[in-house]
Amino acid sequence: MRLMLETKNVNAFHGKIQALRDISLRVSPGELVSIIGANGAGKSTLLDVLSGILNTKTGVILFQGEPIERLEPHAIVKLGLIQIPERSQVFPRMTVAENLDMGAFLKKDREKKRRLQDLTFSLFPVLKERSSQMAGRLSGGEQQMLAVARGLMSDPKMLTLDEPSLGLAPLLISNLFEVICQIQKEGVTILLVEQNVYHALRVCTHGFVMENGSIRMDGPGMDLLKNEYIREAYLGI
Asked: Please, which residues bridge with residue 214 across strands?
């Protein structure tokens, strides 16, 4: 089976500071893969590199077998690799429905758009209830849901999420992770960057631990949750 995503010895810099060091990972179609690590570990930088926002210095990035490390962000989006950045911003003076339409702006098939909207509203019923409401009047948690929903409207093959639970109340965090799992069940491959280590490893098929721009260890999520180093360094147990 062809991999959805593969990176080989990727190195990247912020100015003169090396942010990624020989990053090699694989993501198979339909997987939910989590990347955990402390602030400054390079997690968000990796997502920016995958999305073409930051260029690699060396290394190869393959998306469905094709090299993408020299493509512009808009070209990567067209291929179906969609990023939901940290603290995603909605268009506050547009309605929820208009925000969702912006996510589907590359889709010309009206029937496809309708099916995507139906899926989105089934996953986020509160957005259907508030489709005519200005996005700027949604709560912080609802705006985060809208940001994820807008990404889904682009019909992604793979969705990368950067700290989606940041700043959310515990109940909303649990609900958000349930939705992320439902999105995976719909056939969307997910690469999740999270500081909420317990939730991130609990739901993932495979996890990677990043430290100082490198991958320190990886393995099945539940195995990492039981790892003594992870429990001590990230869970405080």
From this structure: 211
